[in-house]
Amino acid sequence: MPQNNEAQPPAPGASGQHVAVLGGGSFGTAMTKVLAENGHTVHFWMRDEHQADEIRQTGCNTRYMPDVKLNGDIRPTTKLEEAVANAGTVLVAIPSKAFRAVIREHSQAFRDGQIVVSLTKGIEEHGFKLMSEILVEEIPRCRIGVLGGPNLASEIVSRDLTATTIAAKDPDVRRELQELLGCEYFRVYANVDVYGVELAGALKNIYAIIAGLASARDLGENAKAMLITRGLAEMSRFAVSLGANPMTFMGLAGVGDLIVTCTSSKSRNFRIGYAIGKGKELDDAVAELGQVAEGIYTLKLVKEKSEAIGIYMPLVRGLYEIMYEGASISAVINSLMMSVQNSDVEFILPRTISQ
Ligand SMILES: NC(=O)C1=CN([C@@H]2O[C@H](COP(=O)(O)OP(=O)(O)OC[C@H]3O[C@@H](n4cnc5c(N)ncnc54)[C@H](O)[C@@H]3O)[C@@H](O)[C@H]2O)C=CC1
Ligand SMILES: O=C(CO)COP(=O)(O)O
To answer: Pick from 2, 104, 211, 238: most CB atoms within 10 A?
Structure first.
């Protein structure tokens, strides 16, 4: 029986460390705030000089977090080399579409043994690479980790109680990150299943779009529970076939993140689904959002990959038909509800249980 490796957090560690956060959007800002409040110096990299200057002068990142004041030793910069050179640990919150390009362009800035953690919940278009795989390819001499879990940035900046999962192969990396990030409102669990934690974070965005769409159509609470549960079955079937630990999907990075994004309009992916459900064009919905919704791109890649490896993903297929093939929402719902494939048993029991 696979084990769930979500280890309990150690006590928060010593403050006063130097950390770099790459990416000046919502999540980079939220994690900068946690780190600074934990007493660390944060070298906060973003590409926009105006934004860096505003944070320097006022402590506010109004474009992404208009009502949030950032306190503590935060050093905004547009020089990535400088941020990385000054830090022991680097957190990367850059959308998946730009992730490799940014790391590759600055790969020489990273030092041997430096801890580099991806916060990004997406998949690279060519080759179905996850962000930690990109880090291993581009900066192999660094120690790599990923962060997953139900972590809405807008709640973290309000100090709402939150748990997260850090995954890394190296136990020292897991412990260091737990100590660095953990505090009274941010509880950090550890997991060894890097691939599962990271893939779960990317996959749940698809089901958040579906849940938003269902909400816009007023499909009801039973439908919401059905979609979340069957979404979990579908995403774990896919991930396990690619090597993830099934128990990861029972944890914060799996079902935890799925629940929060499928039930909250604070999720950008949920909001995209809601807008489409209300009849908006995708491009208009994206423009109105003004932030990244990774699920839009992940959907295409997962649909192609699932077909290539023969994994049955009816919800992915249905959303793809709606978003990219112009199918009507009601026709897709009807076809999913009336499908006979795989509805005779809810799941296949392991041999040891069914015998
Ligand atoms: N916001 C949230 O609640 C959470 C977000 N994440 C993940 O974090 C990643 C980043 O998301 P957010 O910060 O929320 O997105 P966002 O849309 O709020 O901000 C994206 C940031 O990336 C920057 N950026 C885009 N292209 C860039 C490039 N080529 N070079 C440098 N910077 C670039 C933008 O200027 C912006 O500052 C995503 O993969 C998301 O799924 C993960 C957990 C929670
Ligand atoms: O990953 C997230 C919460 O854990 C954020 O989700 P959205 O990108 O949909 O806002």
So the answer is: 211
- Of the listed 33, 97, 204, 280, which one is catalytic? 204
Convert the pLDDT of each residue in 237-279 to its tens digit.
999 999 999 999 999 999 999 999 999 999 999 999 999 999 9
User: What's the CA gap between 248 and 199, in Å, rounded?
Assistant: 10
Residue 303 annotated as catalytic: no
The ligand placed nearest to the CA atom of residue 122 is: 1
Q: ipTM higher than 0.85?
A: yes
Distance from the alpha carbon of residue 346 to the mean position of ligand 1, in angstroms: 36
Confirm or deny that 116 is annotated as ligand binding. Answer: no
Q: Give the atom of ligand 2 at the shortest distance from the alpha carbon of 201.
A: 1
CA dist 13 and 93 (Å) reads 23
- Among the atoms of ligand 2, which is closest to the Cα of residue 151? 4
CATH homologous superfamily, domain 203-343: N-(1-d-carboxylethyl)-l-norvaline Dehydrogenase; domain 2 (1.10.1040.10)
| pTM for this predicted structure | 0.95
The 10 Å Cβ neighbour count of residue 355 is 6
